[in-house]
Design a protein that fits this description.
single chain; 87 residues; 2 helices
Length: 87
């Protein structure tokens, strides 16, 4: 599998600069996580967990998407943080 840049140059006067508005951190190989970033991702996972635990249950498609989003977040954190950084 070849490495490729996900960030694309923006348009206008700064054509050679990346377009951060289209940033996709879960797909980026050039990501830097700070303690604040890690905490924010953990809050996202916690919110998803709380929502999945509430009643009434979600429609099946919505539930699958939320579970997939949760897994993406966890996988991202595990792949991009030093061992022992996340619970």
């Amino acid at each position: 599998m070849s490495e490729k840049t996900v960030m694309m140059p923006g348009g206008g006067r700064s054509e050679q600069l990346p377009d951060h508005g289209g940033c996709k951190p879960l797909a980026c190989r050039n990501v830097t996580l700070t303690r604040d970033n890690i905490a924010a991702w953990l809050r996202v996972v916690e919110r998803i967990d709380r929502r999945l635990a509430t009643q009434p249950t979600l429609p099946p498609l919505r539930e699958r998407r939320m579970r997939a989003r949760r897994e993406e977040g966890i996988d991202f954190l595990v792949a991009n943080t030093p061992e022992g950084t996340i619970p």
